[in-house]
């Protein structure tokens, strides 16, 4: 049983409750990815044998995945002795595992390998295709399983926006988080934010405010 004390920004507190679908959308610097990475670590300490897959639509290498961020969280939370970090996966207590995969590499047959997984975290979910979302949802079918998504909105018509914001399944938990919701917003990003506000006001609301992208 995990006894981690993880500081959580108020905006993400609703996501601490169990839910089949959890989503966080917004602009740069909100801490969305950091929050979900900490959730992954915490769940694997609380649940023996927990299995999580971290997904992107396209993942050409592990450098494009959340693996490094999760490794950093394991280190900063001082729980490295509980995990075995391998080249392409992370082994967790009770024969659990954290995998990193690209949905574009999957077919209707290969996706079946994820049927017994407890968690699926979709990063950069604005790029997730309708095909990928349609394959993923019924695949993550274990009792109590959850599908998470974090993204910076791009278009209302994107599959994840249509599903979690327009249709929003009953019982799903979706929050909007931006830089102003992050109590640990670093000075280097504050400088970048002000620079974008000054030099690129036409795209500022999309980059930092989580608004849909405008056509340029």
Taken in chain order, the helices and strands follow as EHEHEEEEHEHEHH
Strand arrangement within the widest β-sheet reads: 3-4-5-2-6-7-1-8
Amount of beta strand: 15-25%
- Look at the structure and give the mean pLDDT: 95
**Through-space gap between termini:** 50 Å
Q: Radius of gyration, rounded?
A: 17 Å
Describe the structure.
The protein is of the alpha/beta class. Helices cover 31% and strands 17% of the residues. It contains six helices and eight strands. The protein has an eight-stranded mixed sheet, with helices on both faces. Helix 1 crosses helix 2 and helix 5 packs antiparallel against helix 6. The model has no long low-confidence stretch (mean pLDDT 95).
List keywords for this structure.
17% strand, 6 helices, 31% helix, 8 strands, 216 residues, eight-stranded mixed β-sheet
Task: Please outline what is shown here.
The chain has six helices and eight strands; from the N terminus they run E-H-E-H-E-E-E-E-H-E-H-E-H-H. It is of the alpha/beta class. The longest helix has 15 residues.
